[in-house]
User: Fold this.
Amino acid sequence: MRQPDWVPAGTDLEKPNAARMYDFYLGGSHNFEADRRMARQAVELWPELPQIMRANRAFLRRAVQYLAETGVRRFLDIGSGIPTFASVHEAARAVRPDARVVYVDNDPVAVAHSRLLLQDDPLSSVVEADLRSPDDLLARPEVAALLGDGEPVAVLLVAVLHFVPDGDDPYKAVATVRDALPSGSALVLSHASLEGRPDQADAHQDIYRRTPTPLTMRSRTDIEAFFDGLDLVDPGVVYLPEWRPETPGSVGPHPERMTGMAGVGRVP
Assistant:
């Protein structure tokens, strides 16, 4: 197989990767047959998976542009995957061309892909770090520089926290990051939820138990707790399509079928 120029040297093209599978669900082109094969198997078990991924990405874009319109021009995307299709820097710079973005992921494959893709972008950088070690993440030079001069920063934890089990204390990790943010900053969060489709929760979690990244779905109350100490932006924590939709008709008749909840909170 001929290796495209966006692929880091030494990448195993026969081994599926979660970040490239996500790109496939979104309709992107930065994926391989191994990724597509695994993704199709997941869709057989969970037919709405691509729509859920796209609803999640659409929420990310709306939230980033909303914050950019309020004056935010610094973004810290934790658990970013590969910033290809409808990326944070593209969404932010549609409003603020000078927006700076630091992408963070704990997957070396996603980090290598991202660095290669963004090597000519002076306003974006990529860091390999893990939310479960928040002090280490915050100490990285790129992250410290983003936070260092007191300008508001939007932290994105989009479809990330459901991959952090309770035993790794995700609430403490989020609180550590929150406490490092300047006044006026924001937390953008989406999370797989037990609500909406409780009949499917076990099946959804079973799919991910077969992967290196098992899923912990949480209730609305549990998701709202991640915003402790922050001022929730209207309409609060809601199903993915319900967060500030572009038009009322874009919500659809059954937003709960997206099995994900989302919200944005601001640092007082």
In short: Residues 18-266 form a domain with the Rossmann fold fold (CATH 3.40.50.150). The chain has a mean pLDDT of 87. The chain has one domain: 18-266. The chain is about 35% helix and 15% strand.
